[in-house]
Amino acid sequence: MSGLISHVTSGLISPLMSGLISRRPHPQPPHPSRRRHRSRPRPLLRAPLACALFALAALSGGCAQGAKETLVVLGPWTGPEGKAFEAMLKQLDDGTAYTYAYEGTSSLRETLVAQLEADAPPDVAILNSIGELSEYAHRGRLRPLEKAAERAYAPWAGPLRVQGRLHTYWVPLKVDLKSLVWSKKGTSGGTSAPKWCIGLASQATSGWPGTDWIEDILLHQAGPTTYTDWATGRLSWQNSAVERAWKTWADLLGTRTDDAVEESLTTSFEGAADGVGGKRGLLNSLDCTHEHQSAFIRYLYADDDVRVEPSARFLQGSDEFENTYEVSGDMAAVFSDNPDAQELVELLSDRTARGLWRDMARKVSEPEPQPLFPASDDPQPTDPIGGEIAGILTEPTNKLCFDASDVMPPSLRDAFHRAVLEYFRNPTDKHLEDLLKRLDSVRDAATRPSTTGSSADGSSADGSSAGADGPLSAARPPEAICASPGG
């Protein structure tokens, strides 16, 4: 499967070759539903063998304490972003008994599923989907966090009820702000209607830029309570507030020619590689003035004179919800029984690691914006735009709501992506009515309790969770997906 990276390698260390390390990850135990946990053999047991093998080459004796065991972190970052994270991770493992190895892939879900099917999960995985994390927790794949649970800042993380017990299963590492509008300085601000930049292509996840639009509109028109009920599956897609959000999006975009529609459907959210002056970004690629996009896009405009504004005033929303913002994040969860994986998540989520990460982001070879973090006392970006966005994310009077589609079960999220593409091509009322009915059907299937047996990865035949106590409720996400900034 594309993107699958094996991390099962081994090595020995010689006292004459200090500095070389073993890359042998610890073996993974069977799923707890199949048998009890037992202690895993440590790579340190291989040290006597290492001494014996090198004895012929080294006439004087002694052997080092042994090879360091490798803890593997699987995450979504590649390129400069991945380099910055990996550089931070290498500094964290100095002085520890472990080597921390990072595996970055743009096919994160497929890679993780394949590793789980092979019963060889990473020690720690970093995901941006609360819906996926909730499913893994209900299937018994995640380990409840211990000390790191203190850093489970809302709305990125919170207690999840699994089999009647509340635990914290993930913590945010890096966060992002979605309720933003970008424009080139010198273009009209609020004096005329924006000409919106739309690029919906994103390989297997095409459509998500449109879901961000609809989520942000609903949040600012109907407020956090309605938004939460919808995102967590308690509100019908045919509800009038949800329907209004879709129609508002179509109204804001205005009438578009067939050629313009096709251009947006096939243009990446990052814009064209041959934009104005060879620059990427939709503002440099399309005939438009304003772009609705998350804070991460600022890396494309590092050399441009851009303006960024909260999206509220553009969305035909209510003044009551002006200080409400949609956010996203990358959360770390423990997939192995190794207690040192818990310690690693604790390290990754503290201020020291975040300071190192910010510094490494400034040192990578390509422009890479410094990451944003959830707590007010975290080291934040030092550039003006990054600092402004960090101020919104940590302002106590604001209300932050997690990206709705990333709260939904993966099957519903993916159906939402596809529906956006269909509606963009044909934004008629009748077509919208059909699409919303279809999404309600997907929602009903995704939230239906499971009564079937579980598969090899702990999931039921229909993709829900299953366990020893009979039928289980669906893998519901945490209910508190809107909150004032924490930390």
Q: How would you portray this structure in words?
A:
By secondary structure, the protein is an alpha/beta fold. It is built from 14 helices and twelve strands. Strands 1, 2, 3, 6, 10, 11 and 12 form a seven-stranded mixed beta sheet that branches. A three-stranded antiparallel beta sheet has the order 8-7-9, with no helix packed on it. A hairpin with a 2-residue loop joins strand 4 and strand 5. Helix 5 packs across helix 6, helix 5 (208-222) packs across helix 7 (240-253) and helix 13 packs antiparallel against helix 14. The two termini are 39 Å apart.
Topology:
Elements: H1 47-55, E1 69-75, H2 79-92, E2 98-104, H3 108-117, E3 124-127, H4 130-138, E4 160-162, E5 165-167, E6 170-177, E7 180-184, H5 208-222, H6 224-231, H7 240-253, H8 258-266, H9 282-285, E8 290-292, E9 306-310, E10 324-334, H10 339-348, H11 351-361, H12 384-394, E11 399-402, H13 410-425, H14 429-446, E12 482-483
Parallel strand pairs: 1-2, 1-3, 10-11
Antiparallel strand pairs: 3-10, 4-5, 6-10, 7-8, 7-9, 11-12
Helix pairs in contact: 2-11, 5-6, 5-7, 13-14
